[in-house]
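Homework help board

Subject: predicted structure for assignment chain

Our instructor gave us this sequence and asked us to write out the predicted structure in token form, then describe one feature. I got the tokens but I'm not sure how to describe them. Can anyone check?
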Amino acid sequence: MRILVDTHTHTIASDHAYSTILENVAAAARAGLEGLGITDHTPPLSDSPDMMHFQNLRVVDREIDGVTVLRGAELNICDGRGNLYVDGDAMREMDYCIASIHPILYASSDPAENLRAYQGAMEDPRVKILGHPEDGRAPVDFMALARAARDQGVLVEVNNSSLRPITYRRNTRENITAMLRACEACGTHICLGTDAHFATAVGRFDESLSLLEEISFPEELVANTSLEKFLSLIGRRA
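My token output:
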């Protein structure tokens, strides 16, 4: 299996990331990717850029070095109702948004509350991906989450950074395995994202692909094996 779109990457617009859009695109081209999502953090996360960063992404070329550049954002789930803080107009030109729980802003120890938060976030039509929902610091019932994501047409992310030894997230391998089995049982599509904060991580899915192979996860449920398939599943055109 080959992954041809990296759906989750950060640039120097997010203060704790260290590469530019062009550096990330160059890495994507070297990796043979068809598409690259630029998904920097949004307020109220303290390291996020001003909203003008997202509103002006239209100036970035749609294709660079043979790589289609997708305009995105990583939104923050800010409470148990799934509030995303950023109003709709600010994101109207994005190709897609990721919705993630970041414990620095919000996380509950109650799996039922976190499920309600994800469900609330998925009601927002901008949200096409749930970011790193395997983080044990915000536990959730994966079977219920997979069903909800399937019903809303939202992709569940397998975050490669969560599987790397440097991760600060909890119980990631065990949780991703359980999450994948739930997605397979429910027929829920997933996507693989690197969550790259430095260009050398762009397009590197080794840990995620190894786990998918280990548990024989069906390729037909993987959204980003081609740009065309990914765009179709998030309701966009090339």
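Reply (TA_rk): Your tokens look well-formed. For the description, you could write something like this. The helical segments are 21-30, 52-55, 111-122, 142-152, 160-163, 172-186, 206-214, 227-233. That's the kind of observation they're looking for.
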